[in-house]
Specification:
The structure holds two protein chains of two kinds. By secondary structure, chain A is α+β, with helices and mostly antiparallel strands. Chain A is 56% helix and 19% strand. Chain A is elongated and about 105 Å long. In chain B, the strands form two sheets. Chain B has a six-stranded mixed beta sheet, with helices on both faces. In chain B, strands 2-1-4-5 form a four-stranded antiparallel beta sheet, covered by helices on one side. Classes of the chains: A alpha+beta, B alpha/beta.
Amino acid sequence: MLKAMLGEAWLAMGANRLRTALTMLGMVIGVGAVVIMMAIGQGAQYAVQQTISTMGSNLFIVLSGSFTTAGVRSGSAGGPTLNVADGEAMAELDGVANVAPTHQGSRQLVYGAQNWSTQVVGTTPAYLEARAWNIVNGAGFGDSDVRSSTRVAIIGKTVAENLFGAEDPVGKTMRIQQNPFLVIGVLGSKGQNLDGRDQDDTVIIPLTTAQRKVFGTPFLGSVRMIMVQADSAEGMPKVMDNVTSLLRQRHRLREGTPDDFFMRNLSAAAESEAETTRTMSILLGAIASISLLVGGIGIMNIMLVSVTERTREIGIRMAIGARQKDILSQFLLEAVMISFAGCLLGLLIGLAVALGINLFTGMVIVISGSAALIAFAVAAGVGIFFGWYPAQKAAQLDPIEALRYQ
Amino acid sequence: MTESVIRVVGLGKSYATAAGLFPALKGVDLDIQPGEYIAIMGPSGSGKSTFMNLLGCLDTPTMGDYFLAGNNVAHMDKDALAILRNRTLGFVFQGFNLLPRMSLQDNVALPLVYAGVDKETRQARARELLGKVGLGQYAESLPSRISGGQQQRVAIARALVNSPRLILADEPTGNLDSHTSEEIMRLFGELNAEGITIVLVTHEPDIAAHAKRQVKFLDGQIISDHLTEHAPA
């Protein structure tokens, strides 16, 4: 029965090919638009998430605060108000996963005939853990290296390329300022951060080595920045509060005096960026869905015309024994078939266009199976929803009137 | 005595019009036995079309009872009527009423689709009946490829496909020339000879003369009901 009805629906669709094709076109454009927009939107989300994940999650930094000497105020991180002991105390707090005091600055690197200016980061092994940064070649340094201020360095990919070219950097000795450093590892690539800065253009060395040999800090043990990673995103506000009260207590700040440090939530910026792309992607999908709706209205329109044109046929079918539900399902099936065929075509065209965008503009696109599934479900839904009224109208015709219809 | 194929008791139908209720059929009694061949005659407006629609279960009466093969159909709902039409009746219309996009074979098989018969059986039965009306070689053609008389034969094949108790023919020769009309009437005669009950609506006396019994309608009532004097063999 179903097979016979499918065949009849196919015949009916073929009876007026141009009309069927134009009706289908509405669905093709609707589904195609949804597929393309979803691919672009999800691609943008994916790109942002990639960037966020390279930064490390649930991070915030504590910067040493400004201080005032004889009326001259320094900027943030201007004075040595934080120290390594502060960091060690923070690590004891609940909900803190990693604490990495860092001291960074721009320095010139020299290897053989090459030289390169880059950001030198003096820190502890916890830094790499907090940022989920792995070493692809060689090894990292340990806490003992920090304690004994060894002159070892882990370099980023950009540095490795510019300083060492095709050579394997591991085991080579380069100079930072005048001091020789043994390269012990090369970091995996992270690409750009949200500001567009190249995260791979960096050298990481033990904190104490950096302070003694590279930056020449006057107060050993004081740091300008401490990176803190919380266990979870939910725990972040609590951890930040606890760090604040801990530092105020340790720095003996009285009630009413301002903090002598700053805190900045790195993840919050990233979250808002992710939120923006999510909103954009929903917006794109919503606009595209409107064209799907218009396509559905096109189907309804044509089905109404079709029912009127085929009134006599409906009368004949009723006379020879078609029940109301037979007529109903016949017209419904036709609407769903047009909708489905349009959906399939729209899906293919949408995918092709999305791939083309990726190929020619390099824009990140993500094609998910769920998007295709949703498109199909929507097409079936649109077919049934917009086909229902015309089909109902056909099924409710009076057989005598319908037979008499010219 | 065998059970009547059709028994109509006080059957009436009124239509609501702007001028009030218009009684198209005013309480008709009629009994049709299996194997009968009846012509229903009368001018337009006499109520014969209304009567035919009621006999064909296309319409429901406003009064009286209609027993089709022993079942009272006067108060059945639309779907029950559809099933009854499908199983018990075969229709032949003045305008042939074949579906233009379907092959002749599919046209003939269509009632079997609604009866839920499987495809092989449908096709075999449709070919058998096309053969019976002498059009087996056109099974795959579209209705537009054959003449009016041939189309009416296909319509008769379609009416026969469900092995109905009764064939209702509404002006079956109205669109045909006299020669083709004769052929169609001969076919009805043969079917009746096989035992199929036929009810024929016509306003042409020489067509009605093919039937064995003639019933005349006027103003919504039966005015005469008699056997045909010179029924053809």
